[in-house]
Amino acid sequence: MTHILITAAGSHGDIAPYTGVGARLRAAGHEVALATHDSYAPLVRAAGLEFRRLPADPRTRRADPADAAEQARPPAPGGTRALMRQATAFIKELGGGIADAARDDTGLLLLSATTAPLGHHLAEARGIPSLELPLVPAAPTGDFAPVVSGGRSLGRWGNRAAGRLSLRVIDRLYADAAREMRARLGLPPATPRTVRRRAEAAGRPVLYGFSEVLVPRPTDWRTGLDVVGNWWPWHAPDDRLPPVVEDFLAAGPPPVFIGFGSMAGGEGERLSALAAAALRRAKVRGILQSGWAGLTARHTSADADLLTIGEVPHALLFPRMSAVVHHCGAGTAAAGVRAGVPTVPVPVTADQPFWAARLAALGVATAPIPFKDLSTDHAVARLAHAITQATAAPARRDHATTAAHRLATEDGAGEVLKAVERLAA
Question: Which domain holds residue 337?
Fold first, then answer.
């Protein structure tokens, strides 16, 4: 038995997959704690894991709806510097919490992409092994450009150069936090770039939690960078959809899901009205998931063909849909593929355009609709047309079914367990 500490920070989609990993490790006899923000304590404890607190909770940091809406949009020209300052402040606050999360008996650190650049210093100070578990491809490759660049290829040389540049930007974001953390832990000075290069030179293993169905392992990655399949959020084996959802599903044909996860905070009224209008125009029923945007049928005219829900496991809900409309976060994009239903991608920022392009290339999604385009005069017509394309094209559903069958053969959490047991040995 190993005492394992998982650290993960960010939004719901950045945390939930690690509950599935943790539960799998716990079932194999390991003691597992998950350090994350207070908002996700119920999620962690429900999975049978010990909760440890990390500061900088995005839910409380974005309490102002105006701030949340602004941060959800892609950076405007000249706005990158402000976003860098916000990210640096978030990371500095996070650093102290990660240092406090480890206990004397911690024998292994499992690190998300957000926490890895800090967790490596902790592992060095404590003399314990660590394993990176990112949810998106991060190592430079000629096969595609960095995921935050929007999905456009720059050619093999350009893709690799952009990938190296993106790592240097990340190093810069973590520089202040790393300096403070190393001083606190009694370590000699070392820049994030130095620590990262040491790990690369040592061939340290990295397990990527996405499927080769969407992103085949790059041909030029070094040995030790492995794509193992998705880690699915934990939910109880006896979980069921709420009765109100079951009643709604039984009352008519499969509806279309619309949700934007942790994106678009403060835009609930506008987006709810737009979604309702697009669903009516497409002549389909719909389920709105409130999310951070606060989508709700209260902002629309009374409509028996529209239901608002809160947090519901996508694994239970998505297979019952005729299509899913969402922001294309890594986890939500994979959940749609797993369910075997077509997707209408509405990417907002960060890695979302990358996943939207991957879904479209796989044939399981319509052409992406950038979130900013939902503010145009033709937004209702465009969204309605995409919904019609998603629900009425048999070929797209066939592609989704085939992709779902391929995902069903993968066991991402099982691969993490194998790696943990190799490290423990």
Answer: 243-407
